[in-house]
Structures are given as C-alpha cells and as structure tokens.
Amino acid sequence: MTRNIFRNISLATVASLTLLAAVQCVSAWRIYRDAVDAFCSRVESAAYKSVYETIRTEPFGHAPTGGVKVDLDDFGLYFTANMLETGTLQPYCAEVIDRADGDRVLIRRGDVAAIEHPAVSEIDIDDEGRLALRVTVSVPVDRMWGEMWGVVVPSAAIVVLLCVVFVLLMRTMFRQKSLGEMRRDLTHNITHELKTPIAVAAAANDALRNFSADADPVRRARYLDIVAEQLSQLSSMVEHILSVSLAEQERMQLHGERFALRSVAEQAAAKFAAAAKRVDVTIDVAETLTVWGDRFHLSNVLSTVLDNAVKYSDGSVRITVSARGVRHGRRPCVEITVADNGIGIEPKALDHIFEKFYRVPSGDVQRARGYGLGLYYARRVVEHHGGTIAARSRVGEGTVITIVLPDDAE
Q: Within a 10 A sphere around the Cβ of 183, how many other Cβ atoms?
C-alpha cells in the first residue's frame, strides 16, 4: 500500500466517522426539539381550554381590568387539572399583561424566576387584543433527554465503537507498515553480515590455493585461523537466529535447573576479553546466589545484554553486573541488573527496544551491526520464565537493564 493510498483511506474514514457523528447529533437534536414542541403544544392547548372553562363558568370572575374581570386562581385550578390530564404538569406562572402599555403585568400568580427552561404561551382575553394571558411553564428538559436515552445511547455507542475500531485499524496498519520496513531492513542486514565472513573466508581460501601458502606453515596457520574465525562467526549468527525462532514458539521448551548465577555472568563477560575496544566488566554477584531456570537461554540473554552494552558505547565501556535476592509480594525473586556508561537511548526509542526487528534510529550512520532481534529474544526468554525485563536510560550517560526472575521453583 502506497503512502498516498494509505493517506486517502485514512482521510475518507475520518470524514465518514465525522459525518456519521454529525448525523447522529442532528437526529438527536431534532428528536429533542420535536419533544419540546409537542410539550409546548399541549401546554398551549391546556391554557386555551382553561380560559374557555373559566369564562363559561364564571363570566371571568372579579378584579376588573379595563372592563374584563379575570380570576387567576380559578384559571389555575382548571389549568392544573388540564395539565394533569395531558401529562404535562410542571411549575408555571400565569400573568395578565397589557400589550398597549409595553406588556405591563397587571396580575400574576406564580414565580417566573423559579422556572427553568421556560416555554411561553399568550392568549388574547379581550376583543380588542389589548389584554392577554401569558402562561410560562418550565419545560422538563432532563426528563425529555432521559426518555431519549434509548435512541441517544445506542447512537453514541455506535459512533464510539466505530472510532475505537478505526483507531485499532490505524494502529494495526501502522504496525504492519513498520514491521514490513523492519523486515526489509533485517533482510538487508542479514545479507550484509553473512556476506562479510563468507567473503573473508573465501579470500583466505584463495590465498591458500593460489599463493603457495601451504609452503609456509605460519601463513597457512594464519589463513586457516581466519577461515575458522569467520565460520565461527557464521555459526554464531545462525545460532542466534535459531534461538529467536525458538523464542517465537507459543511455549518455549525450557530445561529448568538450579545454577550459580555468578559463573554464568563470568562466562558471558569472558567473551568480550578480546574485544576491539576496552571493556571493563565488574561482577557484583554473590558466589552463593543461585537461580532456577534454563541455563542455556538465560546465559544467552545475559550475553545479549552485555553485547549491546559493548556495541553501543564509545572507545571504552564500563559494565557492572549485579544480582540480589528480592521479594515481589510474597514471591521470592532474583533481580539481575546490567548497567553501562554507553551512549544511552532516546526516551522515544526506549519503549520499543524489546520489540521484534526494532533498532534504535541513528540517522545515516550505523553505529553497530544487528538484526533488532537480540533484546526481543531476551524479553521472550524472560517472559517464558515468568519474569520481567525493563530498561532505563539517559542519553550520554548509559543504560540500565533490569531482569527479575521468579525463584520459587525446585
């Protein structure tokens, strides 16, 4: 999928979700407005009916007002009964107003200030249209929205669900795109690293055949050592990839045993004695400290972490390997810490270093070769042991890898 197609699909999906949300909001608002209009219509009908019943019953009572007698108490009795009949009884206020005098209130029953969300109806009560009965009723907005929950909530849930699905889809697509790029990088790196020892071994072999190296025992031994070293490097690469393949299994086959942690740490550190740069490894692990697990895989994990500490450092590196017994809750554990003074890791990359194929971006300069599989393999092994692995780092100051392994098996 090209970048333009991916962008167009994303924009179309966002536009569709936005339009859907807008349609749902407009629909909910229209339903609410229809409910308010129906309520106001019933209130106005009850007001007209009450005025008619008051006039018919008592030729509009007492309290003369410009030749018209109005009794709001009687009107209130009929109006309350009519609202109860239509199911619209709410707090209200009735007023007789003089339109010719700027809607001056002549008589009032009720408190307008106590009414929330007012709906106002006016009814003429004289032939000249000068006097009017103004009825202000509180619209039950909360109740209306409550009655609409059967429409609003499912609509909102659908929109939210579609948004969640969209986000998950985008994350998956980005992840697949990233994995594709990392796989291409992995293929390039493996090809490059496999070609290097093959080329060196082939050159040494040609020297043995074509330059009479067999006549010189010293030269022959040197060339044979070169071939052996390159073959060993190839074997190490293949073993590393196979180890990652084993870690990919849903349930890794572990051969648990109790072993001394210090001896494993010393063996892992000894591999870097002949490194091109100066490597100073300090092991702070008690002779008596043991751990239960697969010795082979845990040794590889420690070697991988030490190898990263050496690769991602300047001309010299100081590494401290320490371990101690701890308790997580009631469970006994062994905490292994590997700290170095290397180049460190950017915060935005720190959360991804244990992902498959991930390599910390370094621009156009490749500080060290690798496949982005080492720490992924370490995480898988530790998790299969029921433990955890984490990292903290500061650029220019170094990195600390912490491994916690349960130690309650026998």
A: 13
Q: How many angstroms separate the CA atoms of 405 and 326, rounded?
A: 10
Residue pair 305/400 in contact (Cβ under 8 Å)? The answer is: no
* Furthest CA-CA distance within the chain: 141
What does the pLDDT look like over 203-223, one tens digit per residue?
A: 777 777 776 655 677 777 777
Report pLDDT digits (tens) over 181-197: 666 666 666 666 666 67
DSSP characters for 101-135?
Answer: GTSEEEEEES-GGG-SSEEEEEEE-STTS-EEEEE
Strands 331-340 and 290-294: unpaired
Reported pTM: 0.48
Q: Which two tokens stand for residue 4?
A: 């333009």
Residues whose CB falls within 8 Å of the CB of residue 131, separated by 6 or more in sequence, listed in order: 65, 66, 68, 70, 96, 97, 98, 99, 106, 124, 125
User: Phi and psi dihedrals of 15, rounded to 5?
Assistant: -65, -40
pLDDT in tens, 373-400: 788 888 988 998 899 999 999 888 899 9
Name the percent of the chain lying above pLDDT 90.
13
Query: 3-class DSSP state for residue 408?
Result: coil
Instruction: Give the chain's mean pLDDT.
Output: 79
H or E element that contains 210 = helix 149-210
Identify the CA nearest to 179 among candidates 358, 379, 1, 3: 358
Q: How far apart (Å, rounded) are the C-alpha atoms in residues 317 and 310?
A: 7
Structure tokens at 385: 């042991």
